[in-house]
Write a structure and sequence with these properties.
This protein is of the alpha+beta class. It has helices at residues 8-49, 252-258; strands spanning 55-56, 62-63, 69-75, 82-87, 92-96, 104-115, 120-125, 130-131, 137-139, 149-154, 160-166, 175-184, 190-201, 208-213, 217-222, 232-238, 245-251, 275-288, 293-302. Strands 6, 7, 8, 9, 10, 11, 12, 13, 14, 15, 16, 17, 18 and 19 form a 14-stranded antiparallel β-sheet that branches. A three-stranded antiparallel β-sheet has the order 3-4-5, with no helix packed on it. Residues 1-23 and 25-63 have low confidence and may be disordered.
Length: 303
Amino acid sequence: MWAFPPPPLMEGGLLMRRTMLLLSTVALALLLVGGVAASKQLQEQSASQAPTTSQKSSGGDLSIQSTTVKASFASGSGKNFLGVKVSNHGNLTSFESPAGQEQVFGGREGYTLCSGGGPVVHGHDTGLVEGGFGAPTFSQPNGAGTFPLTVTRNTTDGKFQLKQVWNNPDAIEKDVTVTMTLKNLSSATIESVVMSRTGDFDVGASSNDLAAATEDSVWQWDDRFGVDRPAGGVMLTALTFGTTHGPRVETANTWSTTRAQCPTNEVGTPTPSVQDLTMRVFYFLGNLSAGQSKTVKYKYSRM
C-alpha cells in the first residue's frame, strides 16, 4: 500500500492531465470570444454599408429628396439658345432661354397630388421640399441623360401611381411638354382628385416680375419698358383643354407655405407692379375608380 503523499510519478501525471484540461478550456473560451467579435464586426460592417439616403419627411412619409439631373438638352446659342434640365424625380430644374437667362429659381418646380377637392395631400415634390412619394423608376429609350424621359412614382400611402413623360424639348419653338398619367392603385373610388404643377420662376436679372393669366395659361415676364434687361418671360400652359383646369399666381412668400398643396389662394392678375411671384396650373380630374387612369399635359415655353 502506498503511503501519502503519492509517489512522484502519479503526482506528475495528474498535474499534466490538469494542465491539458486547463489549456483546452482556455482555447475554447478564446474561440468563443473570437467568434463573438467576428460576428459583431460583420454586423458593424453591414450597418455601415446600409443605405443612408432615405429620411422621414415632416409628414412621416418616406422622403428621398434629390435634385439630380436625369435628362438635359441644349441647342443653339445667344438669343437662339434653349436649355432644359429635368431631375430624377421629374422636376424641371432648369429652363434657360435665351442663353444666360435662367427662369427656374433654385430648381424649385414640381407637382402636387390631392383628393377631396384639395385638402387631402397624397404626395408633393417641388425640388428640395417633398413627401408622400416613393423611389422613382425610369425609361430613357435614347440613352442615359437624354429625352424623352419617363419617371414613374407611387405614393407611399398606396393610393396612386404617377407617370411623367418629358418629351424632347422643341429647339425651334423654345418649349418642352410633360404628359402626366395618374392611376388609382387602390380597390376603391377616390373622389375629387386634383393635380397641379407649380414653381418659383424668376425671369431676368432679378426676382421681381409681372404676371398674368388666362383660363389655360399663366406666365411671368419682364416688360420691354421695365428695368430688367433683356425683356422676356416664361409660360405654363394646360394643354388638355377638355379636363377642367385653372391657373394661379402667388407671391413667393405665400408659396413657401402652400407649395405642398393643390388649389390655393391667388394674386389678382395682371399684377399692377413687379414683385417676387410663383406660378401654378391645376387639373380637376374628378373621381377615379379602382384601377382607373387619367392623363393630362402641360407645356413650359419661352415668351
